[in-house]
């Protein structure tokens, strides 16, 4: 009985050992299969595209910001201003100094610069010739904030509105001047008053000569900058018949190729400039202290009427 029992016990031990061995072998095989599947997912014929390791983003682009050359103090202030734009916006900007507005406009059109600070006279030609778009306007003290023309007449003039000017003599200043020639002519065009309806259009050469022509009754209406007309109005020598639309003296613009996201971020950065203006040591420079969003429709209207004016209408 003992031998039989011992034999039976040995069989049970061997049986359990065989079961454990079988289970272990199965686990090893399953593991091997899983590993084989992982290995088969990798193809040694494929190579990593190195461009995928570093995709350039918009924030890594460098945007040129053009401004007119100025004094040494202005140059330092402009550098500080452009560094602020880079830090505050998250985009990279570099300063480009150019000699005149026409050169800036041309480089905007060629995409050599993407942003610029332009005066209103240069802006008009930039819009009509290169499709430049205004982003923000400089906000400065009210008395110097905007460029505007006033149509003035003698206090006892029978004219009451600009529409009454037909058949009368209009005097202007310098035919190349924005506020004493281009804005008045643009205003007439926008009101549907052709120059042919005037009895005469006279270019006197300066604002002072324009006023003198009016006071001497050589002209019935004179168009001069609003600031220039103020003293004559205050002294009751003339009265304002009508005023042109007003436009900011300096405007931040961009070209047709710059991304909307960058434009929006730049506008936000410009609007925050007053908070850090003193810290940037911009006092005493020509860099505007404050900017605000601009009404693009106003410039669209101006550029349309400006571009519609013929060269012959500006006189010989």
Task: Give descriptors for this structure.
10 helices; alpha/beta; 316 residues; disordered N terminus; six-stranded mixed beta sheet; 20% strand
Q: Give the proportion of residues in helices.
A: 40-55%
The rounded Rg comes to 38 Å
Give the DSSP E fraction (strand runs of 2 or more residues).
Answer: 15-25%
Major sheet size, sense and barrel closure: 6 strands, mixed
Report the mean per-residue pLDDT as an integer: 80
Terminal-residue CA separation: 139 Å
Number of distinct helices: 10
Q: Total strand count, please?
A: 13
Q: Give the overall silhouette.
A: elongated
Coarse structural class: alpha/beta
In the sheet with the most strands, the strands line up as 2-1-3-12-4-13
Poorly predicted runs are: 1-15, 25-59, 310-316
**Secondary-structure element string:** HEHEHEHEHEEEHEHEHEEEHEH
